[in-house]
Amino acid sequence: MSEHRRKSPQSQSGGRAAARRAAQQPSGRRADHSREADPAAPSDSYEEERPAGGRAEARRASQRGGRRAGHPEGPPGRGGPPRKKRIIDYPRHDKYGWRRWTPSWKLTTGLFLAFCGSLMGAASIAYAMVETPSVVDTAVAQNNVYYWADGTEMAATGGEVNRQILEYAAIPKSMQNAVVAAENKTFWTDSGVDPRGIARAFVNMAKGGETQGGSTITQQFVKNAVLNDQNQTLGRKVKELFISIKVGNTWDKHEIMAGYLNSSYYGRGAFGIQAAARTYYGVDADKLNVSQCAVLATLLKGATYYDPAGATEYDPAATAKDNLRRATVRWSGILDELVIEGKLSKADRATYTKFPMPDAPKKNDKLGGQTGYLVDLAKSYVLNNTGLGIDEKTLSAGGYEIHTTFQKDKVLALEKAVSKVYDAKINPKKRPDTDTHVQFGGASVDNATGAILAIYGGQDATKHFTNNANETGAQVGSTFKPFVLAAALRDGVQDPKGTGDRILISPDKAIYNGDNELKIKRFDGSIWTDKEGNGWRQTNDGDESFGPIDLREAMRESANSPYVQLGMDVGIPQVRQAAVDAGLLNNGSMNHNDVPSFSIGISTPSAIRMAGAYSTFASSGKQRDPYSVQKVVQKGRAVYTHEATVKSPFSKVVADNVTDVLKTVVEDGTGTNAQLPGRDVAGKTGTTDGNKSAWFVGYTKQISTAVDMYRLDDDATNTNRKFEEMFGTGGEKKIHGASFPSTIWRDYMMEAMKGKKSLPFPKPEPFGEAWYGGGASPSPTPSKTPSPSETPSETPSETPSETPSETPSEDPTPSETCTRLFGCGDNNGGQNGGGQNGGNNNGGQNGGGQNGGNTGTPSTTTSPPGDPGGGAGDGGIFGGQQG
Q1: For labelling alongside 16, which of 39, 259, 508, 858 has CA 20 to 30 A away?
Q2: Hey, where are the domains in the chain?
Q3: How high is the pLDDT of residue 61?
Q4: Closest alpha carbon to 285 in 293, 277, 296
Q5: pLDDT digits over 158-203, tens only?
Q6: 1 burial class (0-12, 13-18, 19+ CB within 10 angstroms)?
Q7: For residue 147, what are the contacts with CB-CB under 8 A and spacing of at least 6?
């Protein structure tokens, strides 16, 4: 090999020109021969001096657009000039394929640090921009103003009521310890927020557990007293977070604790610890013991569900029993937590074994008389029926104008009518065994709209806390019978042959057995028995037997056995549905087993609902739910306006026939004491077994009104309250719906109907078929035996009139009504004035008959003074024998 072939490689410098020259040289051995011929030629043969990787590598480098390996400054490939590394190397300059788009750890770390820095910077700016809040500027309680239907102010109540701010030193340490143990154990050491608490809340909710708050006491204080905003929005939460941090870092913990306890809501309209102490235990806050403090701390979780007195007016689930159970568990847990935290010794804890029951609820004196009942009813309607989605706490904070449907003159008239009877007849001092705990309730509804015009809730809302216009537990008795009749007319009675067919019957042609102690049967004729195999014998009031009797007369006489058997023939489920369709609530009292007595009123609807249900018949089958709030205004804008929903559960012919039968009751039946001169009136009396409640529910074309009476101790601490008998109450032998309740109804309606046009009820169309039930014969022979009034006149007639014939001279057909069947036509001188059951009387002994009647010109026979409306005077239970 030639010597020059062993020379050191030449420098590869020279750039592109050298590269071109090298490319122009011949390759292979021929190049070597030329070099031997010319020793001075440079030694840059292709085999010896080409870059590592050879031609393939050069080709790949060219295709990638980069430099050839081993040539940092080599020629560019087809991709263009070489790329330069950037400050943010993304996409990565020296990677290819998916690696080119994968961030390096340096880039990832840098971005994370930049994000954290930006977030901290933004938070610092936001924190710096938050001003130290002022409770005085933000925690301003407002009024709620309630208006009468005419727009005049009825009452003002709201957040400013029952709040007294206490200094920190006046707040018992036991109360502070209790709320810390119950709400925020890290309060004294945290910075206003608790990240771990918030994380626990999110984890618990994510697992589907109970909704759990992660707020600290500081955050709750900010929400209640600084933001004054209960909305669960992200914006509010973020705002609350920053303000809480600011407050936690700038306020003294003692200030925050005092602010929280002074601003919190404890239920019953009490804001702040001092108001709560006075409301629940009747003492100042500094007199509370640790057990009482634990109860008040329990209420902070939600007074509606932890007040032992219950709050069913806001949520039916918040019963006194359930609330007491929940409160007791939480109260005990707080005391145990105090022991764990070293704030209460085990010895002291052992002394608190009995739940410290708070005082019974008391009403604000400004809401005395009927006003408190009206406000409570409207308040309950706003919370439960308007769809505004506000709770008791939010409403109590104020700021709402609530326009009610109550008419002041009618409220006063109803209160006056009750007071008149109470003052004249009820004397607890004279008759302590019979006249104590006497209660009246009432409600009046506009038939055209469903608006509640007036209620009577009790003598005074600040002394008697239960609203008697709402459901009280008093059974409605025979005032339930119109729903049985409506079901029979609408749904018909069942075919006893079991075909599944139903027969629509006529109130005048359907004849039922009215005997006392009637053995009740199923629709198919089999004897009804309960689970123990016991049968049912239905009694009538006064153990009176009526024999075969049509449904109109059975309603007029308030005979029980025909309507109990009718209910079985129709079916108790159909009867229940008819009552619900008319307007009664399908609540617990309506869900009795399908026992025969269901048809005679063992359920306990409210006076409001009874008036509303009868209004359906007055409106020819159009049903409207009763309501008490027409409009709610907030910040000058109407946020709710009532819109009536009208249903038609009964046809006009059915409803008008029911009305016509109830009109008979008032014209010459048990309800004659409710007559209004010159006006059509329909209604029904009601009396329950044991004489524990009495009702009268009636209506004109325009207004329906229900009045009830019962005896029940209103002591809220007595958990075993029972309805008491009313034999002898008010000096009467027995209380019927025809007595005190009908008197109140009449006196009120005389005032309520003043200035209103006298409108007649529609004349009913003939309806239904003949029917014989309860063993009645197709050719009935009336067996009704006249019986003297339960409360006869104190002065007997000087010249007794002839007793009407007990048996009519002719056997009436089943379709004939009272005029022939029971001799209740005109009678000029009957013993009881127009026959046993009344009629037009021109000289009866008791001025209108045993059960009333229209009293005309007195005869020459001297009679004792009677009720001008056709009753039996003071000795005759206000003109009616029975309910």
Answers
A1: 39
A2: 3-92, 164-362, 785-883
A3: 58
A4: 277
A5: 655 566 778 899 899 999 999 999 988 988 888 777 666 656 555 5
A6: exposed
A7: 153, 154, 401, 402, 403, 404
**Site of tokens 């029975």:** 882
- The C-alpha atoms of residue 539 and residue 572 are separated, in whole angstroms, by 19
Say what the pLDDT of residue 27 is: 46
Using a 10 angstrom Cβ sphere, with 0-12 exposed, 13-18 middle and 19 or more buried, the burial of residue 253 is middle
Among 453, 670, 430, which Cα is nearest to 542's? 670
Sign of CA dihedral 413, 655, 546, 710: negative
pLDDT over 90 (residue 650): yes
- Residue 621 and residue 651: Cα distance in Å, rounded? 6
Q: What are the φ/ψ torsions at residue 401 (nearest 5 degrees)?
A: -105, 120
The contacts found for 270-275 with CB under 8 angstroms, 24 or more apart, are 270/162, 270/163, 271/141, 271/159, 271/162, 271/163, 271/396, 272/163, 272/164, 272/165, 272/166, 273/166, 273/171, 273/175, 274/164, 274/165, 274/166, 275/162, 275/163, 275/164
- Where residue 798 falls among pLDDT bands split at 50, 70, 90? very low
Burial (CB count <10 Å: 0-12, 13-18, 19+), residue 778 = exposed
DSSP, collapsed to helix, strand or coil, labels residue 393 as helix
Whether residue 811 contacts residue 820, with contact meaning beta carbons closer than 8 Å, is answered with no
Considering the four listed CATH numbers 2.120.10.30, 2.60.120.620, 3.30.160.340, 1.10.3810.10, the one that applies to the domain covering 164-362 is 1.10.3810.10
3-state secondary structure 532-568: CCCECEECCHHHCCCCEEEHHHHHHHCCHHHHHHHHH
Distance, in Å, from the CA atom of 180 to the CA atom of 172, rounded to the nearest integer, reads: 13
The amino acid at 208: G
Count other C-beta atoms under 10 Å from residue 424's C-beta: 12
Q: Are strands 502-503 and 493-494 parallel, antiparallel or unpaired?
A: antiparallel
Half-sphere exposure of 586 (CA within 13 A, CB side): 10
Helices (H), 629-693: 652-668
Q: What pLDDT, on the 0 to 100 scale, is given for residue 719?
A: 57
pLDDT at 821 over 60: no
Q: Give CA angle at 648 (585, 640), nearest 5°.
A: 65
